[in-house]
């Protein structure tokens, strides 16, 4: 007798994580998007919330790295993502070197008093692109604060 697979179906969170992993692996390299880009610096500052251990997060992407600019919400029980791909790709396409703005998380939290409640955690972002080919291998300039 042949038994069916005992593998359980992935949870929505596992499916989302897998989609994000695949999207990151399929993203082009930074040097493929903009040959003269030597570094992209992203600074995320989350709205002050006493439940967060860390309010600011910074990332640097260099030419051999995948140009994937989607970051998870700061709350571990939230399924939200902050998608800055369009912003960064716009900078790389136009040759601009700075962008800043604000986003609000549209995900839902699984913990807390009201399970499934909309997260709404705000963040501001600052993005700097270094375009000087002579700077390859040097430290990325930090994203300026606004």
Largest sheet, described in full? 4 strands, antiparallel
Distance between the termini: 67 Å
Shape: globular
Averaged pLDDT:
82
Main-sheet strand order equals 2-1-6-5
- Rounded to the nearest angstrom, the radius of gyration is 18 Å
In DSSP terms (H or I, runs of 4 or more residues), the helix count works out at 3
Proportion of beta-strand residues? 15-25%
Strand count:
6
Could you name the ranges where pLDDT drops below 50 across 5 or more consecutive residues? none
Q: Helical amount among residues, as a percent range? A: 10-25%
Structural class: alpha+beta
Give the quaternary arrangement of the chains: single chain
Order of helices and strands: HHEEEEHEE
Written overview of the protein:
The chain has 146 residues and is of the alpha+beta class. It has a domain at 35-135. It has three helices and six strands. The protein has helices at residues 12-26, 30-33, 85-94; strands spanning 39-46, 56-61, 70-72, 81-83, 98-104, 122-130. The protein has a four-stranded antiparallel beta sheet with strand order 2-1-6-5, with helices on one face. Strands 3-4 form a two-stranded antiparallel ribbon. Strand 3 and strand 4 form a beta hairpin.
Any key phrases for this structure?
single chain; alpha+beta; two-stranded antiparallel ribbon; 3 helices; 6 strands; 25% strand
What secondary-structure arrangement, pairings included, does this model have?
Blueprint: H1 12-26, H2 30-33, E1 39-46, E2 56-61, E3 70-72, E4 81-83, H3 85-94, E5 98-104, E6 122-130
Antiparallel strand pairs: 1-2, 1-6, 3-4, 5-6
